[in-house]
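Title: Comparing notes on inverse folding

I've been comparing how different people in this forum approach sequence design from structure. To keep things fair, I'm posting one structure and asking everyone to reply with a full sequence. Here's the target:
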């Protein structure tokens, strides 16, 4: 299973970063959420072959330039995937398992949606 993070057309290599800037923090959330959602979907006996997270965000215009909005679009690939199970896995990732998402949710409105691409 792979998780790719996209910022526009630019691929983000989160592990190659040395510092911790705000975008890196959001990229980590997307990466962890994708991994959580994929793992939970497998636990739900879904045949997931891949999960891609497309991230968009808005930041405050003045310092500190915290995130005010983060949106994650999940593209989940697999065979015979049930939308209700994929949605449940994504929601659990955001509300229970991803502490970074919960922490950033204190200052930013975090939303998500998903699409299923059959193998």
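Reply #1:
Here's my take.
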């Amino acid at each position: 299973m792979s998780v790719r993070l996209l910022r526009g057309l630019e691929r983000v290599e989160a592990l190659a970063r040395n510092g911790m800037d705000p975008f890196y923090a959001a990229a980590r959330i997307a990466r962890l959420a994708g991994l959580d959602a994929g793992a939970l979907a497998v636990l739900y006996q879904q045949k997931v072959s891949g999960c891609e997270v497309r991230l968009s965000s808005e930041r405050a215009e003045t310092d500190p330039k915290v995130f005010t909005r983060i949106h994650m679009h999940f593209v989940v690939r697999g065979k015979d995937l049930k939308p209700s199970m994929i949605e449940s896995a994504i929601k659990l990732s955001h509300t229970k398992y991803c502490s970074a998402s919960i922490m950033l949710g204190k200052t930013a409105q975090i939303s998500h949606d998903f699409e299923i691409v059959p193998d």
